[in-house]
Amino acid sequence: MSEHRVRFAALFDAEVRPHNERFRAAAAVKPGEDVLDVGCGTGESTREAAQAGATALGVDVSEAAIARARELGGARFEVADAQTHAFAAAAFDVVLSRFGAMFFPDPPAAFANLARALRPGGRLVLLVWQERARNEWYSVLHDAVAPGTTPPPAGPHFSLGNPDRTRALLEGAGFRDVEFTELREPVCYGPDAATACEFALGLKDVQELRPTADAPARLRAAFAARETPDGVLLGARTWIVTARLSRA
């Protein structure tokens, strides 16, 4: 998956452009702030924080993604597991995560670790998928690749989609003022059906459906039906989650 992530880095970034613009506005990074970007991938959100005048560090468990992020430059990047990494205590004003925080094996431990890395009153800003049933893009993939079958259990990337559970998780780690802003914007799978098909076939969601030999043709037909002048667009819903670390 890391190789696919790096190969299609530009498309992964373009896929969620409208969501990212709102995410960046919600983060409201200011000059002079210290920012930690968790699960940074190839580093777009980290570079955006640096461009806003912050001192930005992006971390990811993928060596390939961090290598590409370093090639692109614009900020500092490290291979690190944010769940367990020994960040300096109270070192950051803002912790960001764009589609990265959903993958922690032990979410309570991970958010407690991030809370320790934040200064009192510091901000947490997440962009996460809403629950799978609310995202059309998944149903399009499933219906094309494995029609008539029951989808497997939802993967970890939907793990923060339930606001009540996520609020309880963050409050348990010491955060307060937890708020959810709903975004309903399409995601773009590529400029045309052929690119979208190649992109989709490398996604974990599709691979878990065990595509048959005729799956690529069905996917391409599904994407062709959704081609627009702005690319292949599929419905999507996300949450922007904001919170502050308690001062006490």
List the main descriptive attributes of the protein structure presented here.
single chain, 248 residues, alpha/beta, Rossmann fold, seven-stranded mixed sheet, three-stranded antiparallel sheet, 25% strand, globular
Strand and helix map with partners:
Layout (H helix, E strand, L loop, with lengths): L1 H6 L1 H7 L1 H11 L6 E5 L5 H8 L3 E6 L2 H10 L3 E4 L12 E7 L8 H11 E12 L6 H10 L17 H10 L2 E10 L2 E2 L4 H9 L2 H4 L7 H10 L2 E2 L2 E4 L2 E9 L3
Parallel strand pairs: 1-2, 1-4, 2-3, 4-5
Antiparallel strand pairs: 5-10, 6-10, 7-9, 8-9
Notes on the protein architecture:
- It is a single chain.
- With 248 residues, this protein is α/β, with parallel strands linked by helices.
- The chain has one domain (2-131, 154-188, 236-245): Rossmann fold, CATH 3.40.50.150.
- The chain is built from eleven helices and ten strands.
- It has a seven-stranded mixed beta sheet with strand order 3-2-1-4-5-10-6, sandwiched between helices.
- Strand 4, helix 6 (107-117) and strand 5 form a beta-alpha-beta unit.
- Helix 7 (136-145) crosses helix 11 (215-224).
- It is globular.
- The termini are far apart.
- The mean pLDDT is 95.
- Separation of the first and last Cα atoms: 41 Å
| Shape by Cα distribution | globular
**Record field, number of beta strands:** 10
Order of helices and strands: HHHEHEHEEHEHHEEHHHEEE
Strand order of the largest sheet: 3-2-1-4-5-10-6
Q: Indicate how many domains the architecture comprises.
A: 1
- Integer average pLDDT: 95
- Under CATH, the topology can be stated as Rossmann fold
Structural class by SSE content: alpha/beta
Low-confidence spans: pLDDT under 50, at least 5 residues? none
Beta-strand residue percentage: 15-25%
Q: What composes the largest sheet?
A: 7 strands, mixed
Q: Which CATH top level class fits?
A: Alpha Beta
